[in-house]
């Protein structure tokens, strides 16, 4: 028998929608004006533009997934999106540690905590 899904609280939908918008905005900025996001990177180097465009597409895909999951109000889809978010920010944390960049470490820790919290809340709602 199929169990009916409980409605998601509005605050979860709002947070998820904000993440969707944030990811899509970062994607557009990376594509249109990469120097505004990557101040310490020489974007005139060979192959750099290619990598930036790949990063922009990754951010757009994540934003689209968050937007779609939020629109569908799907707990499983949102859980997967937050798991991806968590994995991405664990990677950012490791990069921040290896580069000794405190701002990246701090933001990655905050986003890991938020992602973990959202995964916990979503799985508790099942």
Description:
The structure is a single chain. The chain has 126 residues and is mainly alpha-helical. It folds into 2 domains: 9-73; 74-126. Helix content is 79%, strand content 0%. The longest helix is centred in the middle third of the chain and has 25 residues, at 48-72. It is globular, with a radius of gyration of 16 Å. The mean pLDDT is 89.
Number of strands: 0
Number of domains: 2
The share of residues in extended strands comes to: under 5%
Range of helix content: over 70%
Cα separation of the termini: 15 Å
Q: Kindly state the mean pLDDT as a whole number?
A: 89
Contiguous runs where pLDDT drops below 50 for at least 5 residues: none
Radius of gyration: 16 Å
Order of helices and strands: HHHHH
Derived structural class: mainly alpha
C-alpha geometry: globular
């Amino acid at each position: 028998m199929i169990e009916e899904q409980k409605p998601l609280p509005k605050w979860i939908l709002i947070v998820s929608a904000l993440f969707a918008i944030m990811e899509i905005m970062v994607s557009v900025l990376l594509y249109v004006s990469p120097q505004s996001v990557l101040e310490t990177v020489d974007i005139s180097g060979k192959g750099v533009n290619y990598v930036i465009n790949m990063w922009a597409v990754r951010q757009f895909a994540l934003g689209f997934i968050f937007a779609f999951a939020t629109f569908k109000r799907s707990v499983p889809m949102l859980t997967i999106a937050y798991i991806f978010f968590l994995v991405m920010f664990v990677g950012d944390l490791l990069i921040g540690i290896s580069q000794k960049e405190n701002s990246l470490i701090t933001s990655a820790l905050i986003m890991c905590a938020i992602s973990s919290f959202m995964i916990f809340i979503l799985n508790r709602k099942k």
